[in-house]
Amino acid sequence: MGHKLENRLWGAWVTVVFAICSQVLYGQVLQHPLHWIGVVFGWSLNTFATLAATTVISAYVLDCFPQHVALASSWLNFWRVTGGFVITYFNPNWIAHNGPAITFGCQAAIVAVSLASVIATQIWGSRWRMKFPVPAPEN
Questions:
Q1: Of 115, 108, 110, whose CA–CA distance to 23 is shortest?
Q2: 3-class DSSP state of 102
């Protein structure tokens, strides 16, 4: 079996497991009178999942676009930062309305469903690259 860029995405499966566990734990600890160390542990798992996912996705995208590293990195960081800022606008109201357990449980479900995009890329990514080749570098 030769080197296939999509093999890099197997690491995303691990990050999804950590992200789901972290969201559920975080929501449950905030919802119920559980020990504060649960918040620390949940947030630590979430931080690890975010950093690991960023590393996995960056490695894949930068391998796909070796002549466009600056542009690819810029887009990855733009979406990561945008997601981090946007959630602060709706998450407090969502938590106030539904409680932390439901809010973070729904976010865990969103993470789980997002794994479908990774699976699709693992299955069809090489075909997509053949059908839509990388443009030539501009400089």
A1: 108
A2: helix
* Token pair recorded at residue 55: 């590393």
- The answer to whether 71 and 65 are in contact (CB under 8 A) is yes
The count of C-alpha atoms lying within 13 angstroms of the C-alpha of 78, restricted to the half-sphere facing its C-beta, is 6
What is the CB neighbour count within 10 angstroms for residue 108? 20
List of residues 6+ apart from 45 with CB closer than 8 A: 18, 19, 21, 22, 25
Task: Tell me: pLDDT of 117 over 50.
Answer: yes
90, two tokens: 């709706």
For 40-96, write each residue's pLDDT tens digit.
999 999 999 999 999 999 999 999 999 999 999 999 999 989 988 998 899 999 999
Report whether 103 contacts 29 (CB < 8 A).
no
Domains of the chain, by residue range, sit at: 9-131
